Amino acid sequence: MYNYKNISIYYETYGNSNKSILILPGWGNTRETFNNIINLLKDKYKIYIIDYPFFGSSPIPNKELTIYDYTLLIYNFIKDNKINNPIIIAHSFGGRISSILISKYKLKVSKLILFDVAGIKRFNIKLFFKTKLYKLLKKLVFLLPKCIQEKAKNKLLLKFSSNDYLNIPLIMKKTFQNIIKEDLRKYYRQISSETLIIWGDKDLDTPLKDALYLNKIIKNSALIIYKNSTHFSYLDYPYLTNKILEKYLK
Predict the structure, then answer these.
(1) Domain ranges for the chain
(2) What residues does 10 pair with on adjacent strands?
(3) Euclidean distance between the first and final Cα of the chain, in Å?
(4) Distance separating alpha carbons of residues 34 and 233, to the nearest angstrom
(5) Domain 2-121+183-248, what fold?
(6) Distance separating alpha carbons of residues 13 and 159, to the nearest angstrom
(7) pLDDT tens, 31-88?
(8) Tell me: the pLDDT tens digits for 95-119?
């Protein structure tokens, strides 16, 4: 367990090489979704993989966090474990952290591998009107008899909230809101490290246009698109992913 400013994260290491890989999972993921990649690379690298606060074996933090709190936590984890010039493998939420680590904290990385990463915030007219409708209906709830107001509010929450939001405890909901409101494209734009972007063309959480955009703004990057693949492209195509990683990391 690693602790920084009263925030604890569980982590595991594999291998004993002097070459390091840091795996940053997606929001809600645990280290276990990367077993296939760990087994492939642990004989050639020392691999560090974490569970974020609240997920996996890490405890719930006692305060709300921002993406910058998460990044500072990981930055100090890297420093305290003397992880030098690592390869970073990031999925979804892990991409948010990676972009700030490299751009704001000037972390030197050997290579960067991004799977369906998040952090590109776009104006979504559908979401805009959905949010407006939710706020309006929430106000109208108070016109109902008091005995059914709570039930009506819960029904609205179930109808309008994402699964990620619904499946976390109250103490983490503000943290989740803090994270998704940040547009991190200014950090992605500053990445100059050699970068491989891998994306599922059927990703509904982070659309393919985000991959095309990142490939354009990260100068030293290449993009591989998996056909008929979801937000978890590395799990949809484990064998292909392993072959690509073997080739790319040679």
Answers:
(1) 2-121+183-248, 125-173
(2) 51
(3) 31
(4) 12
(5) Rossmann fold (3.40.50)
(6) 41
(7) 789 999 999 999 999 999 999 998 889 998 988 999 999 999 999 999 999 999 999 9
(8) 999 999 999 999 999 999 999 999 9
